[in-house]
Each structure stands twice: as C-alpha cells, then as structure tokens.
Design brief:
alpha+beta, 4-stranded antiparallel β-sheet, two-stranded antiparallel ribbon, 8 helices, 6 strands, elongated
Length: about 230
C-alpha cells in the first residue's frame, strides 16, 4: 500500500496526473463530436477526431513545457503549426459527389477538435467545453432550421427521353414543381432521324427527395421511354 502511495505522489509531483487530465478532457471533447458526425453517416470517424484532439493537446503541452526551459522560445509556434497541418486533414474530409460538395461541416469540426485539444493542453478547460457545447448545439439545432427553411440543398439532373419530336413540356414541368423542386436550367436535344427528344433539367431539391417515386411519375406519361435522375 505504501509503495502505491509513493508512486501516486511521484506521478502528481511531476505533473503527470495533470497531463492525464488534459489529455482525457481533449479526448472527451472529440468523442462527442465524433459521435455526432457518425450519426450523420459522415466520412470522418470517432477515432480520427479523438486522435486529432489528443495529439493537438500533446503538442500544446510540449509547447508550454519547452517555453519553461527556453526563455527565448515562442510557445505559439507549435500551435500555429498544428493549425496549418490540420488544414490538410480537413481538406481530405471534403468530397465532391457529382456536382455537389459534401464534407464542409466535417472539415470545420476537424478544426474545432484540434482547437479544443490545444485548449485542454493549455489547461483552458472552460473554453474547450464551452466550445464543445456550442458545437453540439449548432450541429443539432441549426441543422433542423436549415432543413425547415432552406431544404433545397441538393443539385440533381433529370434526363427524360421522349419518343416524339412534339413535347408537351407543361406536364413535365408540373410534376417537377409539384414535388417542391426548382428548375435551374433546361437543355433540349432533338434527334430528327430517330424522332426522339432528350430533355435534361438541372434542378435544386431536398436531400430527402424520393427519386424512385419521382421517376415513376414520369414513366406514367405517354411516349416517355427513359428517365434518369442523377447528381
């Protein structure tokens, strides 16, 4: 028992316990952000954010400890280098799917995880956990507001092939508009030899749109031989 107490005193006297508290605090911050991202099926994982946060925390501790022994050193250099390096990881989380860009929010969360890790490494627990709370609040609450007031976030293409040169576009436009879709551009191509018309719409729609149901509406129209909906 005495040996255990001696080991514990040595750990606390050398600030090891303090280091552990900082690392665990940074780990918890990134854990909650990682869970939130996984609930939205994002490419960034829980382990990735946790590794980013605790490594940033470790570099922050290293920066502060180096400043104690080198009075002329600038302890902000490592933190500045972390921010630059994290930019590459954040850029990797941004994906282009067709003509849509995905992952911008996740890239911003990577920066948040790094910043919270640096704060925990500098014993700034209150700002770190305050930012964690604000991040979770923004991601949960404002996501619902965006979906309610700004639902049209996806850009898709609707390609319709009609076996005729004469096209009643009003019926097609009515189906599109009745499904809450906004037409941005319309491209018409007529094949005179085959007596076929191809119409391609560039539209803006919500993420939850039922493309199968929409395609079935078009196939019920006369002379339509092919329908494609893609990004």
């Amino acid at each position: 028992m005495e040996e255990v107490l001696i080991i514990f005193r040595n750990i606390t006297s050398h600030n090891y316990f303090d280091y552990a508290v900082r690392l665990v605090a940074s780990l918890l911050c990134s854990l909650f952000l990682g869970i939130e991202r996984k609930q939205h099926q994002e490419i960034i994982g829980i382990r990735t954010l946790m590794l980013i946060s605790i490594s940033s925390c470790l570099l922050s501790i290293l920066s502060l400890e180096m400043a104690k022994f080198q009075l002329t050193s600038d302890c902000t250099r490592i933190a500045a280098g972390v921010v630059t390096g994290i930019g590459f990881i954040g850029a990797g989380a941004i994906l282009k799917q067709g003509i849509n860009i995905k992952g911008l929010t996740t890239a911003a969360i990577v920066f948040c995880a790094s910043a919270m890790g640096l704060c925990c490494g500098s014993k700034l627990y209150f700002p770190a956990f305050t930012v964690l709370f604000l991040c979770l609040f923004i991601l949960a609450f404002f996501h619902k507001i965006e979906q309610k007031f700004f639902p049209l976030t996806k850009i898709k293409h609707i390609k319709i092939v009609i076996d005729s040169l004469e096209v009643n576009s009003s019926t097609i436009n009515e189906i599109i508009l009745n499904n809450g879709i906004i037409i941005k551009e319309t491209h018409v191509e007529k094949d005179i030899k085959k007596e076929r018309t191809k119409i391609t719409f560039s539209v803006k729609c919500s993420e939850s749109i039922d493309t199968i149901k929409l395609s079935n509406m078009f196939t019920k129209l006369n002379q339509i031989s092919k329908v494609m909906i893609y990004e």
